[in-house]
Specification:
mainly alpha; binds iron/sulfur cluster; 114 residues; 4 strands; two-stranded antiparallel sheet
Length: 114
Amino acid sequence: MARLVDRLNDKPGLVVELVTGEDDVCRPCPHLDNGACRRFGSQVEELDARVLERLGYRPGDCITWGELLDNLSTSINAEQLAEFCGDCRWTDLSYCTDGMKTLEKNRTGGGDRP
Ligand code: SF4
């Protein structure tokens, strides 16, 4: 995951397609089974759809990685993550919360922009 994020951050102009459900991030995950998530099931689609709606996008929209980060940093803050992430086990590891705080800090000029 960290390597993928680093690669995306190196290319903020890269166009990404927004999807709900299993995606490229899931590809190496051991919970992915025949294109479906064995861990969260259909909850993945619901959570993804909730995030896209908050950001004002629809599944299938194509935008740059930089635009997505800008929108994320102004639309959702770290304290609101639980509202979008359900009982995802990554939440307890603070990986996403730390990432959102970094985004917010970068937007307000308190850190290095990815
Ligand atoms: S747990 Fe499910 S949603 Fe999360 S990365 Fe793995 S397959 Fe994808």
